Amino acid sequence: MDIKKQFAQKLMDIKAIKLQPNDPFTWASGWKSPIYTDNRKTLGFPQLRSFVKLELCHTIQEQFPEAEAVAGVATGAIAQGALVAEELGLPYCYVRPKPKDHGMGNQVEGELKKGAKVVVVEDLISTGGSSLKAVQALRDYGVEVIGMVASFTYGFPVAEEAFREAGVQLITLSDYNAVLEQAAETGYIKEEDKAVLAEWRQNPSEWKQ
After folding, report:
1. How far apart are CA 106 and CA 20, in angstroms?
2. CA atoms of 29 and 37, how far apart (whole Å)
3. Is 91 left (phi over 0), alpha (psi -120 to 50) or beta?
4. Which of 154, 3, 175, 151 has the alpha carbon at shortest distance from 80?
5. Residue 206 near residue 158 (C-beta atoms within 8 A)
6. Angle at 85 between CA 156 and CA 124, to 5 degrees
7. What is the percent of the chain with per-residue pLDDT over 90, rounded to a whole number?
8. Do residues 147 and 168 make contact, with C-beta atoms less than 8 angstroms apart?
9. What confidence tens digit (pLDDT) does each residue in 93-109 have?
10. Which tens digits make up the pLDDT trace of 110-154?
11. Looking only at Cα atoms, what is the longest distance across the chain?
12. CA triplet 124, 177, 197: central angle to 5 degrees?
């Protein structure tokens, strides 16, 4: 089993991913969705937490060997980003959604050398908006973002286009397609549900169950 399907199964095992094509969830955005993902649940399972940490580290070492620092995106990836930086022995910071409204007014929390080559750690990519805002904040801070690694992406076309336009290479441990394949193979969903789930992914904002 490849890493994407293996990780998809691990996420389903702890119910970090839930698939309910016939009883959709409502996201904070108001979108109706047949899937709900909460990768932060992995932090509560030591073996899985370590698995995610090590796989993200391997990805960085293979794809971005020139990395000089790691940045986590608040709040979901703060902990995992710190674990990755610790394992790699690299400087670490995290990026807030917006600057603090008191104190030093920081958006980037930590200390990075100007011009440092930074890999961003994220937990979940949906539209890509918040992730790419973090990238821009780091660029404004004065470092070079060389790529992003994340636990999971829905693979929305709008997100893929946004990452292309921003010039950010994104690599994830698993994705929506791997979840669908693994869920169907293990009987977690029915084979006929795959078409519904694939249709949602193409245009989630307009999808009606």
Report:
1. 40
2. 14
3. beta
4. 151
5. no
6. 15
7. 74
8. yes
9. 999 988 766 656 689 99
10. 999 999 999 999 999 998 999 999 999 999 999 999 999 999 999
11. 54
12. 95
Structure tokens at 140: 């404004």
Rounded Cα distance between 134 and 74, Å, is 9
Q: Which of 166, 98, 147, 156 shows the shortest CA–CA distance to 125?
A: 156
**Range 26-65 burial, b when 16+ CB lie within 10 A, else e:** eeeeebebbbebebbebeeeeebbebbbebbbebbeeebe
Which tokens sit at 95?
A: 């990026």
Long-range contacts of 20-25 (CB under 8 A, 24+ apart): 21/189, 21/193, 21/196, 21/197, 21/209, 22/193, 22/209, 24/209
Q: What is the DSSP string of the chain?
A: --HHHHHHHHHHHTTSEEE-TTS-EE-TTS-EESEEE-GGGGGGSHHHHHHHHHHHHHHHHHH-TT--EEEEETTTTHHHHHHHHHHHT--EEEE-SS--SSTT--SEEE---TT-EEEEEEEEESSSHHHHHHHHHHHHHT-EEEEEEEEEE---HHHHHHHHHHT--EEEEEEHHHHHHHHHHTTSS-TTHHHHHHHHHHSTTT---
